[in-house]
Write a structure and sequence with these properties.
The protein contains 16 helices and twelve strands. By secondary structure, the protein is of the alpha/beta class. Strands 5, 6, 7, 8, 9, 10, 11 and 12 form an eight-stranded mixed beta sheet that branches. It has a four-stranded antiparallel beta sheet with strand order 2-3-1-4, with helices on one face. The longest helix is centred in the last third of the chain and has 19 residues.
């Protein structure tokens, strides 16, 4: 029997604050901000900037109002139709115990209402059981995870008051932390750290990070494998500039190169552009971008990138396809499509890369679910060139 989706609990709020949330300045601020950003897939940075500027709020009030602002975005379908002000009012009534959302009986429709995501998207995640876990993962607190040297990880976790990550040997997780106080640490989700572990280069070999962005995975590979040459490429110049700065700050010899100038390499990592549905708990406004057409465009782009990157893999080398998506068509589906088009490649089981830990991380591929692993939902698969 499939699990029945239930409404997750609301954030805890001091009952004495409810009147100010409904009639006071803090409530008006939240409503006006939501009205300004509603429907904008890039609303996250705008929301964060607005709260940084709201110096008139005390830190405790700011955290509470920020969390409730995101709650309206995360649970917009549960809060019903109507203007933002009406939805905010229903949220306050819900916190008072004066109102509660209703749920349909159909299990898929019910799950879509609980997650405030469309049914078509949930069906792309998988069967109803997996889709239910996906929705459950949308409501938890993401926290902050950093990457450090594996040998120093446990000692630093004690010193900084963090918790060693369960799956990555290099991660420390915090509920909240000012990362500026963590000297030498790099912010990187545990799932992203595990994608970098898939590269596993041989000593002295060359690695290409095809969609390097700001260089998080490139730097993770360099830090873990001194002497390896890492070439970072991306179509976004600003992202590569940030990668250069981060590498210089970390004292790591990252090389930035244009795609046209890349050589063949023993490892090619493609952290492909995707829907980013695996990070939806961190960026709830992303749900405003999710449409079948946008997904189809991402899938076509991934296929073209994988085929281009495959040309740079040496015989005997490996191509790693990775996403921060929870959708089958961007993950296993993309790998299956690639192998059907490229007869020179074969799938490499995850156990041949990560060893005994592979079974708990997805089995034949890296397949991380937020509700299961506590990470963002990352996917990674390794294929190797046989001729």
């Amino acid at each position: 029997m499939y699990p029945r989706a239930v409404i997750p609990p609301l954030p805890e709020v001091d009952p004495r604050a409810l009147n100010a949330l409904q009639h006071g300045r803090a409530g008006r601020f939240a409503v006006e901000l939501l009205e300004e950003v509603w429907g904008d897939p890039g609303a996250g940075p705008r929301i964060e900037a607005a709260f940084r500027k709201a110096r008139w709020m005390g830190s405790k009030t700011r955290r509470m109002v920020r969390e409730l602002t995101y709650t309206v975005v995360r649970r917009q379908d549960l809060l019903g139709d109507g203007p933002v002000e009406v939805r905010w009012g229903r949220l306050v009534q819900w916190l008072r115990g004066e109102w509660a959302p209703s749920l349909p009986d159909d299990p898929w429709e019910r799950l879509a209402r609980v997650g405030s995501v469309p049914v078509w998207l949930l069906r792309e995640v998988g069967d109803l059981s997996r889709a239910t876990r996906f929705v459950a993962g949308l409501h938890g607190r993401a926290g902050v995870t950093v990457r450090v040297d594996a040998d120093a990880r446990d000692a630093l976790a004690v010193r900084w008051g963090g918790e060693p990550t369960r799956w990555s040997p290099r991660g420390i997780r915090f509920e909240r932390v000012d990362v500026r106080t963590l000297s030498g640490a790099e912010v990187q989700d545990e799932g992203s750290q595990l994608v970098a572990e898939l590269v596993l280069p041989t000593p002295g070999s060359t690695v290409i990070d095809w969609c390097a962005g700001a260089g998080g995975k490139s730097l993770a590979v360099l830090a873990a494998h001194p002497g390896v040459r890492v070439l970072a490429a991306d179509v976004r110049p600003r992202a590569l500039e940030e990668a250069r700065r981060r590498a210089a700050r970390a004292g790591l010899p990252l090389e930035v190169m244009d795609h046209a100038d890349l050589p063949r390499a023993a490892r090619v990592l493609v952290d492909a552009p995707c829907t980013s549905t695996g990070t939806l708990r961190r960026d709830p406004a992303l749900r405003w971008r999710l449409t079948p057409d946008w997904l189809a465009e991402r899938v076509r782009l991934q296929a073209s990138i994988l085929d281009a990157a495959a040309e740079h893999v040496e015989v005997g080398g490996r191509l790693i396809h990775a996403t921060c998506s929870a959708l089958h068509v961007e993950n296993r589906g993309a790998v299956e499509g690639f192998l059907s088009r490229n007869a020179d490649f074969r799938a490499l089981p995850l156990g041949d890369v990560l060893g005994e830990g592979a079974e708990a991380l997805g089995g034949d591929v890296l397949d991380l679910e937020t509700a299961v692993h506590g990470t963002d939902a990352f996917f990674g698969a390794v294929v190797h060139r046989i001729r």
